[in-house]
């Protein structure tokens, strides 16, 4: 799956409410989307602002056949880190947080 298709699907999932969050430690620092510090609309805008140079994939460290998508958009002079994977028909967010440059 390419960058444009990934963006299309994740945005569609957010708009339809088809998402969940992976359980993590320090969730208040690592997933400001889950804690309500940013809204669905704000996350969609961050994702829309991402270009192909700010996108990469990796294998899930627990389940090797799951592709993890990583977006690193820069908005308002802040670098964001958005990490998620798809479990049809949902998106599972691992991290949504500001990152150091």
Could you give a quick summary of the protein structure above?
It contains 3 helices and 6 strands; from the N terminus they run αβααβββββ. The protein is an alpha+beta fold. Strands 1, 2, 3, 4, 5 and 6 form a 6-stranded mixed sheet that branches.
Describe the structure.
The chain is α+β, with helices and mostly antiparallel strands and 101 residues long. It has one domain: YaeB-like fold (2-Layer Sandwich), CATH 3.30.2310. Helix content is 27%, strand content 35%. It is built from 3 helices and 6 strands; from the N terminus they run H-E-H-H-E-E-E-E-E. It has helices spanning 3-16, 27-30, 40-48; strands spanning 19-21, 55-59, 67-71, 74-75, 78-87, 90-99. Helix 1 packs antiparallel against helix 3. The N and C termini lie far apart (28 Å).
- Counting structural domains, the number is 1
Helix-strand sequence: HEHHEEEEE
User: Considering DSSP H and I runs of 4 or more, what fraction of the residues is helical?
Assistant: 25-40%
Largest sheet: 6 strands, mixed
The CATH architecture comes to 2-Layer Sandwich
How much strand content do the residues show?
Answer: 25-35%
Question: What does the radius of gyration come to?
Answer: 12 Å
Unreliable runs, pLDDT <50, ≥5 residues?
Answer: none
Structural class: alpha+beta
Distance between the ends: 28 Å
Q: What fold name stands as the CATH topology?
A: YaeB-like fold
Q: What integer is the average pLDDT?
A: 89
**How many H/I helical runs?**
3
């Amino acid at each position: 799956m390419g960058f444009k298709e990934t963006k299309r699907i994740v945005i569609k999932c957010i708009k339809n409410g088809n998402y969940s969050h992976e359980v993590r430690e320090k969730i208040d620092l690592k997933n400001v989307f889950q804690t309500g510090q940013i809204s669905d609309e704000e996350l969609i805008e961050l994702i829309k602002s991402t270009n192909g140079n700010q996108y990469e994939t990796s294998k899930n460290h627990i389940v090797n056949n799951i592709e993890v998508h990583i977006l690193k958009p820069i908005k308002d002079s802040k670098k964001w880190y958005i990490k998620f994977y798809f479990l049809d028909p949902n998106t599972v967010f691992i991290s949504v947080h500001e990152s150091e440059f």
